Amino acid sequence: MGLIETVERQGFLTTTVEDLVKWARKSALWPMPLGISCCAIEMMAFAGPKFDVSRFGAEVFRFSPRQSDLLIVAGTVTYKMSWVVRKIYDQMPDPKWVIAMGVCTSTGGMYRSYSVVQGIDQFLPVDVYVGGCPPRPESLLKALMFIQEKIDRERAIIIDEQGETREIPKVPQPPVSIEDVVQEIVES
Ligand code: SF4
Known about the structure:
four-stranded parallel sheet
């Protein structure tokens, strides 16, 4: 009996709360676009109909840090601007992720200048660096997929009364996972 048949017949499926939360997080990332210079044009193409980031569930560009969980920094960051970038990052709720798009953002690029930050990892925790000047929209899509994989690998932890952390013991895999069901629906 196939998965869809199983769900249709039994009317439910089993999974873990952790898997459900991870699936929801990775399937609905809301980017906060920070298009500071020319890389922003490629970021716009990433969201446009040709490259269509909505295939990955991340098309809801919020332009408000309080409603976003994925910061995409696209462009040359000067020291003067870095305070603004950091403030926007701080205003985003946890959990949140950061993509450094382009060589300028990742390393300062060709701007070996006193005014340009030589990589935003000097003041932000970066999850994925995207090389290129400018990177193609496909590269940004790949970065998004890396973030989704990273979310998938995350494990919940428990912080006890003494402040010690420990991992939640792994539970046996459920007989039917949400990914399996979604995959079967997509293929049918
Ligand atoms: S990496 Fe190239 S395209 Fe991107 S902001 Fe720097 S100079 Fe512009």
